[in-house]
Amino acid sequence: MNNYLSDIKQITHEKYQELIQNEKVNQNAVLASISLVQKEQNVILCSLGTGSKAVGLNHMNEQNHCLHSCHAEVIAKRGFQLWLYEVFSKPNEIDKYFEKKETKYSLKNDYKVCFYVTQPPCGQAQLFPESKIYGMSAARPFSEFFKETENIPNCDSQRLRSTPANSKTPIQQKNPSFCCSDKLMIWNIVGIQGALLNQYINPIYIDNLIIEFREHFSLKQVFDVRKRSGKNKNDILKINNKLISKSFRIQKPKLIYTRKNLFTHSPYHPKNDELNKRINKDINQQSLQSFSYLYVDSCGTEKINSINGLKWGLAKKDISRLQFLPKITKFQLFQKFKNLYYSFESKQLLCNYREAKNRNIKYLCLKTNIKQCFQEWSLNKIQYEQFQ
């Protein structure tokens, strides 16, 4: 393993230990981070997330704007977007990481984007009939989301899946978001900067995907939309035989499996194999921790209640107050975008979150093409995106 990859693991693990030093945590945590590596030497830990829970439908509504998924990979990615907003709020920082190309900024070639996670992401990456360790993921195809039936092992790679839930979980407590395997596959096409920031920043792609993985077979096809869908490059990147945008591509990050110095709090650590056997009997046992951590360079840390997607330790009277939302909810990130919009356009943004996303026509067309490549898609959550 390259030295900087070892550094990423070490820095990420040390930051996690710093976060939990006053906590009573069990040996059952998922950890993810996004780092920039400059010239394969200098590691900048941009964001870190922990967690393996997702908020149920019963906690989602149009008023509370909670964080819908508290999976480590999602928190790390949202944290990276917050890091980008912080960079673009300081003009002297922009030139450090970005260069202007025509009308948008691009991450400098000096930097590699490294995404590290301490276990295979939920969904397709955990559907291993060959595996004796991981068992079968409880991430279910979206077409079966509302069915109250037993989880049936289904390794069909052309199915898109929801966040895992036990077969006995009531429908109102399930989460209609994409599982993390499918999110990563989509991020390999649209980038990890999101639709809003893409209006000013060219897509930022993952260069190295580092996964703690004890098996000896490849996950490469899991994150490749062409392998998963059976479609070709033109089906995804073109409309009427014309490229949607030259800035989009189908990224194939270098997959790096680590089998040494594993994350000791992971259920997939060798010493926790007995625990993992119990987890396989009931996938919900994998989500014992009821809180998640967010760390963002220059923004500090935040503890999140992964049951309801709000800040940890809120009093009932504060639950509906927007200032107490986690920093990485769509609502909070949209406020950051409105400030960025004003700094670039010198005028106020007078539309809601959904309308602002839909202004990015090229991004929207690309997502539509991806959607058409598969039999199913995540449940419609437009009602949660009408806020300002």
From TrEMBL:
GO CC terms of this entry: cytoplasm; nucleolus
Pfam families for the chain: A_deamin
GO biological process: adenosine to inosine editing; RNA processing
Residue span, A to I editase domain: 47-376
PROSITE patterns attached to this UniProt entry: A_DEAMIN_EDITASE
Gene Ontology molecular-function annotations: double-stranded RNA adenosine deaminase activity; double-stranded RNA binding; tRNA-specific adenosine deaminase activity
PANTHER family: AT07585P-RELATED (PTHR10910:SF62), EUKARYOTE SPECIFIC DSRNA BINDING PROTEIN (PTHR10910)
Protein name in UniProt: A to I editase domain-containing protein
UniProt source species: Paramecium pentaurelia
